[in-house]
Amino acid sequence: MHYDFNTARQGPGTGCEKYDKRQQIFGTDAVIPLWVADMDFAAPDYIRQALLERVALRAYGYAECMPAWREAVAHWLRSQHRWAIEEDWLLPTAGVVPSLALSIQLLSQPGEGVIIQPPVYFPFFGLVRENQRKLLLNPLREVDGRYQMDLEQLEAQAPRARLLILCNPHNPGGRAWSHQELTELAAICARHDITVLSDEIHMDLTYPGIQHIPFAQAAGACRHLTLSSSGKTFNTAGIGGGYAIIHDPALRQRLQRVQNTFHLNGETLFSLAATEAAYRHGHDWPGELMAHIAQNRDRVYAACQGSPIHPMAPEASYLLWLDCRPMGMNDEQLQRFFVERAGLGLSAGIIFGAEGSGYMRINLATTPAIVDKAMTQLAQALSDL
Ligand SMILES: Cc1ncc(COP(=O)(O)O)c(C=O)c1O
Description:
By secondary structure, the chain is α/β, with parallel strands linked by helices. It has 14 helices and 15 strands. The protein has two domains: 17-43 and 284-383, Aspartate Aminotransferase, domain 1; 47-281, Type I PLP-dependent aspartate aminotransferase-like (Major domain) (Aspartate Aminotransferase, domain 2, 3-Layer(aba) Sandwich), CATH 3.40.640. The strands form four sheets. A seven-stranded mixed β-sheet has the order 2-10-9-8-7-3-4, sandwiched between helices. Strands 11-12-15-14 form a four-stranded antiparallel β-sheet. Strand 5 and strand 6 form a beta hairpin. The two termini are 40 Å apart. The mean pLDDT is 97. Pyridoxal-5'-phosphate (PLP) is lined by residues 37, 95-97, 121, 167, 171, 199, 201, 229, 231, 237, 242.
């Protein structure tokens, strides 16, 4: 391994949310922060170099997305995900969540139904509600300790929906949806004229041996668009930016127009540089990163062995979903246990929807030393119960 996953770069006073918002989120700074989905490590050096070169120019005017950026993104999708796209299918965006908001505005009317599959990345709830759309829930089913889609229930509610927001891979459940699951979902959505907005921000973060399947490869006749970015993979979320991949030229032009309407025109000078450098030089990063994350996952597995906390085996993402229901606590007691007794700042499962009640989400993208310290504190707190 030539990347350093053993040194934490984020820390108190560095202006990062994970550390510097602890008081606000947990009511104390005295927790190891294992919540918001970014990483404690340094981004790779080729990203730093690209940003430094950009800074050295001392020209920070309006940015133009150059052909080299399109080439780098298309090459990444082809080589990492066996997804051959045309470069002009790419539309730079301000980020995945802003593009979801714009897509909801573009492709549905107030009062129309938008399906999400909880427990799921919590901003999806607000995106639907705050845009005055009707929130339709298609909860995942837990089968043998693993989430599956409830396609029967989806079929039943599909006539009331205009859009479906897909989380592929799934946060917080860690599923990398199979080709068959995606094909079945696409067939239902095509039959009911539902457009799928596929959020693939975790696409590069699959565990060794697991292949991410882009929804576009299973979509068939289903209208869809895909939103992603390099920010989650390479730990540059604070720089912003992302991109849409839209095969249908009319749909692409419409999203471009709505971006113009809100003056949310794509990436910034720095995010374009970061993405291009990441995708040009970072082909070995996801594999090395996820091998490291797998070791951290195993440390948590070992610590939870024989305890009332049962991690759900993930296929993707550096987030681990902990089933704490056997602890017999309600959500408030659970959060208090982790903060006050264990000194750990995790994401409470309940924020991902009612289906997350009794769960906690832990972020594994940190150093082995921090994971070990966290697990020692957890073991102590559990033994004091
Ligand atoms: C599923 C999912 N979508 C989107 C985002 C954030 O995307 P962006 O920062 O590009 O808006 C996250 C961050 O955790 C996420 O987990």
